[in-house]
Amino acid sequence: MPRALPRLPCPLLVALSLSLSLSVAQADTAPMFSPEGYRTTLYRSPTPQQVDGGQVIDTAALQTLLSQQPRPVLIDVYRRQWLQGRFIEDEPHSNLPGSLWLANTGDGELSPAWQAYFVRNLQAASAGQPGQALVFYCRADCWLSWNAVKRAKALGYHNLYWYRDGLDAWQQANLPLQPAQPVPFP
Fold first, then answer.
1. How far apart are CA 160 and CA 119, in angstroms?
2. What CATH class does 55-179 carry?
3. Could you tell me the sign of the dihedral formed by the alpha carbons of 154, 180, 78, 103, in that order?
4. Residues 6+ apart with CB under 8 A from 98
5. Nearest alpha carbon to residue 149 among 35, 32, 38, 33
6. Share of the chain above pLDDT 90, in %
7. In whole angstroms, what is the distance from residue 7 CA to residue 122 CA?
8. How many Å apart are CA 6 and CA 145, to the nearest integer?
9. Does residue 17 register a pLDDT over 90?
10. Within 13 Å, how many C-alpha atoms sit on residue 101's CB side?
11. In Å, what is the CA distance from 186 to each residue of 75, 138, 183?
12. Pairing state between β 160-163 and 178-179
């Protein structure tokens, strides 16, 4: 004859249910965007079709830009783990030929040191010209480059492009890549 499962006291069931409900509610209320409008979590997820302050381009449009003079500056913002004062190469990374890799500068919240790294390298790459064309990219469905475009706009740059599908689209088109290392920090 089957045995009945022991019954939990009703108050214990209520407390357990309430605890689970609060945990789910807290997870759902974690902000996905900072007060300044930068994406702060779930960076590898579907991205919008546009970015405020920049023009979205595809591979063909990027190739056209690259054939013009002056050439745009290509900026890869893919993340690289930073630990104990150095970048940790956990896997090889490649980027579009001629790119600067400003690792971690697409994060939603930057410390003052990472913000200074971003500012200093944009200043150098643009020769101090806010009208210099800058193309930010990462991977497909990656908010890091979206954040970087917004951050560059906030710094006064105004000729900004978001290569939305980034490295993945470049690879899919069988275009050349180069092994990459991040620009040294700081």
1. 15
2. alpha beta
3. negative
4. 71, 74, 178
5. 38
6. 83
7. 64
8. 54
9. no
10. 21
11. 17, 21, 9
12. unpaired
Place of tokens 């200074």: 116
Determine the Cα–Cα distance for residues 96 and 14; give it in Å rounded to an integer: 56
Pair 134, 141: CB distance under 8 Å:
no
Distance CA 103, CA 46 (A): 21
Q: Would you give the DSSP letter of residue 67?
A: T
Q: Where are the domains of the chain?
A: 55-179
Token pair belonging to 153: 């706009």
Confidence of residue 28 (pLDDT cuts 50, 70, 90): low
Q: How far apart are CA 21 and CA 178, in angstroms?
A: 49
**CA neighbours within 13 Å on the CB side: how many for 154?**
13
Give pLDDT tens digits for 94-149. Answer: 999 999 999 999 999 999 999 999 999 999 999 999 999 999 999 999 999 999 99
CB 34 within 8 A of CB 146: no
- Apex CA 42: angle with CA 120 and CA 155, to 5°? 25
Token pair, residue 36, equals 């300044």
